[in-house]
Amino acid sequence: MSEPLLTVEELRTWFETDGEPVRAVDGVSFDIRRGETFALLGESGCGKSMTALSLMQLVPGPAGRIVGGRVAFAGRDLLRHSEMAMRSVRGNRIAMIFQEPMTSLNPVLTVGDQIGEVLRKHRGLKGKAARERILELLEAVGIPAPAQRWQDYPHQLSGGMKQRIMIATALAGEPDLLIADEPTTALDVTIQAQVLKLLRGIQAETGMAMLLITHDLGVVSEVADRVAVMYAGHIVEQAPVKQFFAAPQHPYSQKLFASLPRADRRDHALAVIEGSVPRLNSVFAGCRFAERCEYAWQTCREVPPRWTVVEQAADHGVRCHLVDPTYREGRPMPAEKTAGTGAGAPLQGPRVRAERSTESLLSVSDLKVHFPVRKGLLRRTVGHVRAVDGVDLEIASGRTLALVGESGCGKTTVGKGILQLLRPTAGSVRFAGDELTRLRGEALRRHRSDFQVVFQDPFASLNPRMMVANIIDEGMVAQGVGGKDEGVRRRRIAELLEQVGLAADAMYRYPHEFSGGQRQRICIARALAVEPKLIVCDEPTSALDVSVQAQILNLLRELQNQLGLSYLFITHNLSVVEYLAHEVAVMYLGRIVELGTVAEIMSAPRHPYTQALLSAVPRIERGEGTERGEVIRLEGELPSPVNPPAGCHFHPRCPYAMDECRREYPGTSRLSDTHQVKCFLVGRGETVRGEG
């Protein structure tokens, strides 16, 4: 076995406050070998990113400082380096891909200038040699037409392309170690698959080591060699990835697996981790997970668990009394638990309303939302952005329709068009028999209580200057719900908060005082306050950790069963679709290309685009890691809705495109009463790879 490239021993990074210091990193130890991918896994706020910043001595001061430990890189302790010495290491021997590329790229410099800066500093390349190397790097990371794109600015690139630019910039210094902090969090599954394949290929060619920071178990299972689970500032479990996925030992690790949404858990509530990560300025007497652990006993609260090697697995270690032979024999006999089984309690009357309802609540026909493109001094219209270009869909009472597709395909615009937050250019939107596109003013306002929306970012959608009670009350007053008696409305607000799993006294707090999952619960309570029949959920779990995501999905399912709510669920997370949805609509460049039940779409996709989406999703199987067939790689980016391709919009990226695909848009082929596809191959009855 080769010597470690990086060895971290008892690393401690603290932030000074008026009271106890915040121990963001509190005794972290691990090592990484050349060519290895080491994953650091855990919830937001557990110290993953601060660990990475500490390795590069980028801890924000003056409050933050590294108070102890050792970081040996290629035999030299980086913590003894001066700032000047570290500048020769950063971007050269060690490079980092940050989580949000738009805030990491300089908006006033072209991407070529930003990559060239690294080449000049660490490789001494200038002029023609630098330009050639820039183009090589852009081509290596899959940027189309690099000779043209190298002079683009960051705002001219899509999210996936900006992330690739960040990767190219990091690779320009030819690092020995790449730190990738949530490199795929904001990406669609197709772009995620491309980025991960790219990183694996570069590792194979150069022997580069990688520290992967993520909360996505699917990404870990696909690319990591070893994994460490971090909780409340320190590592609680570390193992080779196959051993970890086969038999996670720490109760926290087990709960992370049990929180994952899957098709076989549709009739059960997902397991959740009650509470949240403890404040890191706390003084811990015992195990830091004890207050959230269903196995905890008195010893866990009084004695800090020590690092214990799992029997018959020398490279698998856990910080837990359950594994430590000194303490595990003395624990009381526990009641029967579900943490390791991967399932929560069965749903009460699962899907009763959903299965019996045949009444159409929402019917959308040929919906179009076009935005004018204006140029010149007189702002003449020179074209249109065809964001939504002829969408048909229906949602029955008590049902969930998932709308999936890549970013930029028009999903959110469909939701806004249905809610009349954007006025449709053409088409029909009928809600409970009423044509919404014809309503104006007060007539439309009266219907606002029937349909509500939960946005992707809960913090941005809540007024930071208003208390929770006022935020929820605002809609009730506008819609006349609860009458004019403020006391009656306050009692109703208390009931709503308890219904979404929050304490009634939460109404007297401000949004910044809550966690991300709690803020999303407040948004759901606000939507429920006016007693809607339909809720449009726009990526409501995309920014949440897997444990918090499970809480929100359980809540949405429970509310649907209790109240008969209908959901339009906009997402690019297909595992959530498998768990929550009844029907699925797949959208590409403003149009729905495939529509069917969740079983039809997820088990037997027929459109080549749907097949590509599903092929890019990691399948986590306990004991086997990731189970994935061949990924169908889509060439290029999503075309512009300003100038969509002639014929089938998907033909420039489709591996099966024929001449007629380039000439005309395919009609609808009905495969069953519930399954329809827009594809010439399906219309002809030809077999498409992946069918069935």
Binned strand content: 15-25%
Percent of residues in helical segments? 25-40%
- The number of distinct β-strands equals 26
Mean pLDDT, all residues: 88
The low-confidence parts are 337-342, 349-354
* Radius of gyration based on Cα positions: 26 Å
How many H/I helical runs? 25
What general form does the structure show? globular
Name the strands of the widest sheet in spatial order.
6-7-8-3-9-10-12-11
End-to-end separation in angstroms reads: 44 Å
Classify the oligomer: single chain
What does the largest sheet look like? 8 strands, mixed
Structural class: alpha/beta
Features:
26 strands, alpha/beta, single chain, 692 residues
Topology:
Elements: E1 4-15, E2 22-33, E3 37-41, H1 48-55, E4 64-73, E5 76-77, H2 83-87, E6 94-97, H3 101-104, H4 111-123, H5 127-140, H6 146-149, H7 159-171, E7 177-181, H8 189-206, E8 209-214, H9 217-223, E9 226-231, E10 234-240, H10 241-246, H11 251-258, H12 298-302, E11 307-309, E12 317-319, H13 325-328, H14 352-356, E13 360-375, E14 380-396, E15 400-404, H15 411-418, E16 426-431, E17 434-435, H16 441-445, E18 451-454, H17 468-479, H18 486-499, H19 516-528, E19 534-538, H20 546-563, E20 566-571, H21 574-580, E21 583-588, E22 591-597, H22 598-603, H23 608-615, E23 620-621, E24 625-626, H24 659-663, E25 669-670, E26 676-677, H25 680-684
Parallel strand pairs: 3-8, 3-9, 6-7, 7-8, 15-20, 15-21, 18-19, 19-20
Antiparallel strand pairs: 1-2, 1-4, 4-5, 9-10, 10-12, 11-12, 13-14, 13-16, 16-17, 21-22, 22-26, 23-24, 25-26
Helix pairs in contact: 4-5, 4-7, 5-7, 17-19, 18-19, 19-20
